[in-house]
Design goal:
This is SOCS3 protein. Pathway: Protein modification; protein ubiquitination. It comes from Chloroceryle aenea. GO terms for molecular function: 1-phosphatidylinositol-3-kinase regulator activity. By secondary structure, the chain is α+β, with helices and mostly antiparallel strands. The chain has 2 domains: 2-66, no CATH class; 79-109, no CATH class. 29% of the residues lie in helices and 17% in strands. It is built from 4 helices and 6 strands; from the N terminus they run E-E-H-E-E-E-E-H-H-H. The protein has a two-stranded antiparallel ribbon. A two-stranded antiparallel ribbon has the order 3-4. The chain is elongated and about 60 Å long. It starts with a strand and ends in a 6-residue tail after the last helix.
Amino acid sequence: IQCEGGSFSLQSDPRSSQPVPRFDCVLKLVHHYMPPAPCAVPEQPGGTLHPKRTYYIYSGSEKIPLVLSRPLSSSVSTLQHLCRKTVNGHLDSYEKMTQLPAPIKEFLDQYDAPL
């Protein structure tokens, strides 16, 4: 997903002559590319209709259908991890580290995961 000038789109082939749909919200982009829900066909009891709307991704010379079927599951970092990461990212010198209050130094020393 690309974000340019406050609008979102899927990355496209620069050689493509067709414009890429752009959205002001990521959720609108995802909704646009999600497969439509099946709807009942009145002439056929129990039948369903899947409108033919397919998008493709191009990888080299291969044409791959784009299917968004479920959200990507991910875990949220703990607040402790985010705080340590932020503080460590702003400590670019040993001198700044020595100026921290003792409780914060201890808090950072307890951190055993790499940043």
